[in-house]
Design goal:
Blueprint: E1 9-12, H1 14-20, H2 28-39, E2 45-50, H3 63-69, E3 77-82, H4 85-94, E4 98-104, H5 107-114, H6 118-134, E5 140-145, H7 158-170, E6 175-179, H8 187-201, E7 206-210, H9 218-227, E8 232-235, H10 255-264, H11 273-287, H12 294-298, H13 310-314
Parallel strand pairs: 1-2, 1-8, 2-3, 3-4, 4-5, 5-6, 6-7, 7-8
Helix pairs in contact: 2-3, 2-11, 3-4, 7-8, 8-9
The chain binds coenzyme A and zinc ion.
Length: 317
């Protein structure tokens, strides 16, 4: 049954998931300008950076500077990805509106990405949730990587994902993001896990879908999740993105394509598509490489073009 909402929230993760894998370091000034431009597009949330080890993610080593310097638009929630207690401390120093904690549902990906066992990561996240509650009650969401499949282990049992999510929710997480880290998800799998998560975690826990387009299924997966009642989606402008510690990883679901698709379907994202397309045009300069941006090239579906001049001669009125 279609329970798709007419209103959804887009969390722009381009400055974090997008830039974390880029080989050329984007200067801090340019990152700040990028986030400020995104702030003018009407996003509900922007994930500005990650408070990870600069050795693990050198591309985002300036996370604190970026968070200090961005102009914060009223109504936009500014978040950062946090893997451990050290990351929490760094986030609190600069102020974020919401923490996005991270660990993997897969033991091997957790070890490769976060250099901890899942039990160690869970210990860090539980400590962060406890601290956040005691200090100003900063809202915490948890992003669970590889829930639709792990590039090292293959399928991950949905019941194991639910056990992990339940432990985090019981400890105070307000939301869970189901992450398809390397684009292994397919539509009916997405629908089934979203249904199971909504049923297991209950209506008070915000569920978000984090999709990658590695195998071309991201938009189909977004619709599948939306039809089960999911209203929050992570996406990266220009389809930037990928986890450097997951083999074969590539871009997130493309924000402009997600916004455009839902607009066609009459679903409001609150995002200003023309303003966003102006940013898409600047991305090759930002990341210093060529990019394929089909929606920018073609324009939104009802942006029509002049008929070829020769038609008037061939078919006179
Ligand atoms: N922020 C900044 N520095 C950090 C840090 C953080 N959150 N956590 C640890 N460090 C520093 C330590 O201070 C230490 O520095 P030193 O070598 O100068 O003494 C160094 O990093 C190693 O610390 P350690 O606790 O041993 O970390 P680790 O090497 O085991 O790595 C993580 C653990 C989680 C910090 C690291 O794997 C990481 O940041 N991973 C993020 C991966 C990621 O973002 N992937 C993409 C998103 S899914
Ligand atoms: Zn991702």
């Amino acid at each position: 049954m279609n329970r798709g909402s007419a209103l959804i929230e887009v969390n722009e993760v381009g400055p974090r998931d997008g830039l974390q894998i880029e080989p050329v370091f984007v200067a801090t000034d340019d990152k700040v300008a990028f986030v400020d431009a995104l702030s003018a597009c009407g996003f509900k949330r922007i994930e500005v950076s990650s408070m990870t080890s600069p050795k693990a993610i050198p591309a985002l080593a300036d996370a604190q500077d970026v968070l200090r310097r961005i102009r914060r638009a009223p109504g936009t929630i500014y978040t950062a990805l946090i893997p451990n207690v050290r990351g929490l401390e760094r986030a609190l120093e600069v102020g974020v509106d919401e923490m996005n904690l991270v660990m993997s549902a897969s033991e091997t990906h957790n070890r490769a990405n976060l250099r901890m066992t899942r039990e160690q990561s869970l210990g860090e996240l539980l400590a962060i949730l406890k601290y956040a509650r005691a200090h100003g009650d900063v809202p915490c969401n948890v992003s669970l990587s590889t829930v639709f499949g792990c590039p090292f282990e293959g399928d991950i049992a949905p019941d194991d994902v639910m056990t992990l999510a339940t432990r985090l929710v019981d400890a105070g997480a307000r939301g869970i993001t189901l992450c398809d880290t390397t684009g292994m998800a397919f539509p009916n799998q997405v629908a089934a896990l979203c249904e199971q998560a909504a049923h297991t975690l209950g209506p008070d826990i915000a569920l978000t879908l984090h999709l990658h387009n590695t195998r071309g299924m991201a938009l189909a997966n977004a619709v599948a999740g939306w039809q089960t009642g999911i209203t929050r989606f992570d996406a990266a402008v220009g389809g930037l993105g990928g986890c450097p510690y997951a083999p074969g990883a590539s871009g997130n679901v493309n924000t402009e394509e997600l916004v455009h698709m839902f607009a066609c379907m009459g679903v409001d994202t609150g995002v200003d598509l023309p303003a966003l397309l102006n940013i898409v045009a600047t991305l090759p300069d930002l990341v210093q490489r060529n990019m394929t941006t089909p929606l920018l090239a073609a324009g939104p579906r009802l942006q029509t073009h002049p008929a070829p001049a020769w038609l008037a001669e061939r078919f006179p009125a």
